[in-house]
Amino acid sequence: MSVASWSVIVGKGVTQLRMRRGLLRAQQAFWSAPSREEALDAMRREDASGVFAAVASSALDAARAFESRSADGIGAGVDAGEFIGRSLQQSTVFAQARVERGLTLLASVGATAPFVGLLGTVWGIYHALSGLSGRSTVVLDQVAGPVGEALIMTAAGLFVAIPAVLAYNAFTRANRLVLAQLDGFAHSLHAYLVAGVRLGAQEHGRVAPLRAAKAA
């Protein structure tokens, strides 16, 4: 359990560090690109985690699919905002599952490891006392050693559980910040693809030359 939890902690720690470093650059690169394709390529280069790039790619694919259907007259009765919004919602849910991957293991280890250690302690004390049964005289040295060894299991359980719980809380908070930024980016992207309004560029304090849908 310790090896599994520490593998998740190290892996997610590296991923979170790379994600936090590249999020702002990825969004700025996207909104400052001159076309859709270049914007997506720029975000893929800056977004090492691939979370934001996957959402952007899904939204752009949905926009292209809607435009092609509308041009043929098939999707005339379909609302662009709803069509693109559903695609964004689905890709955001997938991105959330990707960001939160591994947290279930940390929560399970943090909740069960102390009880596993306690079970080992009880089992060890039981065997220690069973070994002393039938003796007419028992001295402290004969009890202290086996009981002390059994108590090590409790300490081992806490040694496994405490890092897992602390890491779970830290990653949960970091994920909330990332998902909040992802939600804001999704709303900005939805506004751009539906109405041509570049909210993301205004939030970053610049006027992005990203062309409108048809011009791209």
Automatic annotation (TrEMBL):
Record note on quaternary structure: The accessory proteins ExbB and ExbD seem to form a complex with TonB.
Family, as annotated: Belongs to the exbB/tolQ family.
Pfam family, one: MotA_ExbB
Membrane topology: Multi-pass membrane protein
Protein name (record): Biopolymer transport protein ExbB
Keywords: Cell inner membrane, Cell membrane, Membrane, Protein transport, Transmembrane, Transmembrane helix, Transport
Domain (MotA/TolQ/ExbB proton channel): residue spans on this chain: 81-181
